């Protein structure tokens, strides 16, 4: 289905953000983007480049494939323990 990977990545980002107890604004700051961009990502409306996926993963301290796979157990654990 077209756009499914985009939606999966958005769900992953939202789950990580919520697990960390961060607002969209605080999460956006951590990622180095604007809050409205994070909202668009979470809704699956934004199309990211692979470089952006890599940059976000680095900012979150996780493997980029974790964002794309939707396997969030490790990502959520790391995000909860990361300094804010």
Automatic annotation (TrEMBL):
PROSITE patterns: HTH_CROC1 (PS50943). The keyword Transcription applies. Residues 13-67 form the HTH cro/C1-type domain. Keywords: DNA-binding, Transcription, Transcription regulation. SUPFAM superfamilies: lambda repressor-like DNA-binding domains. The keyword Ribonucleoprotein does not apply. It comes from the Bacteria. This is Helix-turn-helix domain-containing protein. The lineage of its organism: Bacteria, Bacillati, Actinomycetota, Acidimicrobiia, Acidimicrobiales.
